[in-house]
Design brief:
- This is Branched-chain amino acid ABC transporter permease.
- It is a multi-pass membrane protein.
- It comes from Microbacterium pumilum.
- Its main location: membrane.
- Belongs to the binding-protein-dependent transport system permease family. LivHM subfamily.
- The protein is mainly α.
- The chain has a single domain, classed as ABC transporter involved in vitamin B12 uptake, BtuC (Orthogonal Bundle).
- It contains 11 helices and 2 strands.
- A hairpin with a 2-residue loop joins strand 1 and strand 2.
- Helix 1 runs parallel beside helix 5 and helix 1 packs antiparallel against helix 8.
- The chain starts with a helix and ends in a 14-residue tail after the last helix.
Length: about 290
């Protein structure tokens, strides 16, 4: 029983990292209607900024908060001077632009900080607690708590605030939103800025568990995209639940399903995607798109 509990908690912790990136992807999509493949690279850049600040003697919590602010500004700048040139055009072109941006950011991080592994200080104590015979790290519990808080805040933003409703209106129909007097350009910048800030949180959560390298978020981005497909692009709660499902089922399958093991556990999210797309194409928690003709 202790092993099962430990696998579940560790899976929730790992899934929370995927969820942070998935929430950022959902936020950009809700604000602009685009899928940002550069989200992982922006998270890495934020983590490097936070790490560099800690090297100057700034406490890790303050460094992470400052990196979130810097990331918000950078995200807004990217939207204003790069992405905006492609918004409203062919969506495939915008997707290629975000992939190119991912490559550019990764290269810049490697050029400035090199590919050498760097140790990122943990935001949470490196202690453990005993829960029903399972040894659980405080860092895992802290990671889960952070993602739950962010998920609830995002859900509140989209459903219960004028800013969230305005972001959704701009994503659905920017022309109608502009005719209604909404500052579409500024709202798009805010959406990208918030997503970049979320990416900074994801980078700060994953860097201590791995080591800080330019490509550390590549695998996490794949899992985040899987969580977005499974949970649904329109539901922040849905993508978090989907990310947790991926993390937990991966761990359980690796230990309890002999023919999968640790080598094939990466197939678990893709099997889940296959099943969900057949049963519910809009995602487990997503809404169907209705198009009037």
């Amino acid at each position: 029983m202790g092993t099962f509990i430990q696998l579940v908690i560790d899976g929730l912790s790992t899934g929370s990292i995927y969820a942070a990136l998935a929430l950022a992807i959902v936020l950009v999509n809700q604000a602009t209607g685009l899928i940002n493949f550069a989200q992982g690279g922006m998270a890495v850049l934020s983590a490097y900024i936070a790490w560099q600040l800690t090297q100057f003697g700034i406490p890790v919590l303050l460094a992470i908060m400052l990196s979130i602010v810097v990331s918000f500004v950078l995200g807004a700048i990217v939207e204003r001077f790069l992405i905006r040139k492609f918004e409203g055009g062919d969506p495939d072109t915008a997707v290629v632009v975000t992939i190119g941006l991912l490559t550019l950011i990764t290269g810049v991080c490697a050029w400035i900080w090199s590919y050498n592994n760097k140790l990122f200080p943990s935001l949470f104590p490196l202690e453990t607690v005993n829960i029903a015979g399972a040894v659980i790290s405080v860092r895992s519990l802290g990671t889960i708590f952070v993602i739950v808080a962010i998920m609830l805040l995002l859900q509140l933003l989209f459903v219960g605030t004028k800013l969230g409703l305005a972001l959704r209106a701009v994503a659905i129909n920017p022309q109608s939103a502009a005719f209604s007097g909404m500052p579409v350009g500024r709202l798009l910048m805010v959406g990208w800025g918030l997503a970049a800030g979320l990416g900074a949180v994801a980078g700060a959560l994953v860097a201590p568990q791995l080591t800080l390298t330019p490509g550390m978020m590549d695998a996490a981005l794949v899992y985040a995209l899987a969580a977005v497909i499974i949970g649904g692009l329109t539901s922040p709660i849905g993508v978090v639940v989907a990310a947790w499902m991926i993390g937990v089922l991966e761990n359980l399958a690796a230990v309890y399903v002999p023919f999968i093991g640790h080598d094939l556990k990466i197939a678990v999210p893709f099997i889940m995607i296959f099943v969900v797309l057949i049963v519910r194409p809009q995602g487990l928690f997503g809404r169907k798109s209705v198009v009037r003709v």
